[in-house]
Design goal:
Elements: H1 12-17, E1 23-28, H2 33-48, E2 56-61, H3 66-71, E3 79-84, E4 87-93, H4 98-109, E5 119-120, H5 125-132, E6 139-140, E7 145-146, H6 153-185, H7 187-192, H8 200-212, H9 224-230, H10 235-248, H11 252-262, H12 280-292, H13 297-310
Parallel strand pairs: 1-2, 4-5
Antiparallel strand pairs: 1-3, 3-4, 6-7
Helix pairs in contact: 2-4, 4-5, 5-6, 6-8, 8-13, 12-13
Length: about 300
């Protein structure tokens, strides 16, 4: 567990550490897009839970204070830390959305409970933990979600959001898992994917989408399917469409419709149109396979072709 024993130049962290109020320390880079996005998510969590007064908020510019970054043991930007009694009680490294931040801060948001050990939250743990802790009377199994007879509407909504978050997160996890296997294990990867119960092409499509979006560019507020819709575009176009989808709260289908209607700016690349004549039965099979993975037919075909070319 990291101990914050020395004061900063202005003494602010050291002073906060001596008070009962925990310090919420946000370590960021002023030129980092992920830092700006995560700071926005943090503000949303505190505003929604009406807990701006729970913490002593501190922002640490990694460029101006490299000494403090080193002292806090920060190696990834952005990083969010909870410091209490001169010790780092909780830590969240890298870009995370509202669900992960809220899970990290839950003990303090619900009455200032102290943690006995340092907590590191991973994207995989957070949605599942939030779902499991949504209600003490909720039971989970592989085949069922058991709900109590009397459940307030607000809690029911919260459980639904947790289920959606877990389902979408699991698609990203499978995508990253499959992408790793493609590059690391060759032929053995094709044998191993049978354990998932998914078709090999489905996982290859997932892996292709994951390869088009490094973790820092994935949007916590949008689904995997949203990202799949724009995966075939250039990175700048991807970001532009995803920005619009976030701002307008578009569904995946709305995003797909607008892309088809408005087209995309392709001035920075040269496109070549390839026409292939196939039977209607084959085209229908392809279309069904594409829909099963959340991709439109064109993106699905591009993913298959890219994978074959790499192989």
């Amino acid at each position: 567990m990291t101990t914050v024993a020395e004061p900063t130049k202005n003494g602010r962290l050291a002073t906060a550490a001596r008070t009962s109020k925990p310090t919420l320390c946000f370590v960021y880079s002023p030129t980092s897009g992920p830092s700006r996005r995560m700071e926005g998510f943090l503000a949303q969590v505190l505003q929604r839970r009406h807990n701006h007064q729970t913490f002593a908020l501190r922002r640490v510019n990694s460029v101006e204070r490299p000494d403090l970054v080193e002292r806090l043991g920060v190696s990834t930007l952005p990083t969010l830390l909870v410091i209490q009694e001169r010790r780092v009680r909780a830590r969240l490294e890298g870009l995370h959305g509202c669900a992960d931040i809220e899970h990290l801060l839950e003990p303090w948001l619900n009455g200032g409970l102290e943690r006995k050990a340092q907590l590191r939250v991973s994207p995989m743990q957070a949605p599942q933990a939030a779902l499991a802790g949504a209600d003490p009377d909720v039971s989970l199994s592989r085949l069922a979600l058991g709900l109590p007879l009397e459940l307030q509407f607000e809690r029911w909504c919260a459980i639904g959001c947790s289920v959606v978050g877990s389902a979408d997160a699991s698609t990203w996890w499978l995508a990253d898992w499959a992408r790793y296997g493609e590059g690391a294990y060759g032929a053995r990867y094709r044998d191993a994917i049978a354990i998932t119960g998914l078709g090999g092409q489905t996982l290859r499509n997932y892996a292709w989408v994951a390869g088009r979006f490094e973790a820092s560019r994935r949007r916590d507020t949008l689904s995997f399917a949203h990202h799949a819709e724009v995966a075939a575009l250039q990175p700048a176009e991807q970001d532009a469409w995803l920005d619009r989808a976030e701002e307008g709260s578009w569904s995946r289908n709305e995003l797909r419709t607008r892309i088809r209607r408005e087209g995309t700016d392709t001035t920075d690349c040269v496109l070549e149109h390839v026409c292939v004549s196939v039977s209607s039965d084959r085209a229908e099979r392809w279309r069904s396979a594409a829909e099963a993975t959340g991709l439109d037919l064109a993106a699905w075909l591009i993913g298959i072709a890219d994978f074959a070319a790499r192989s």
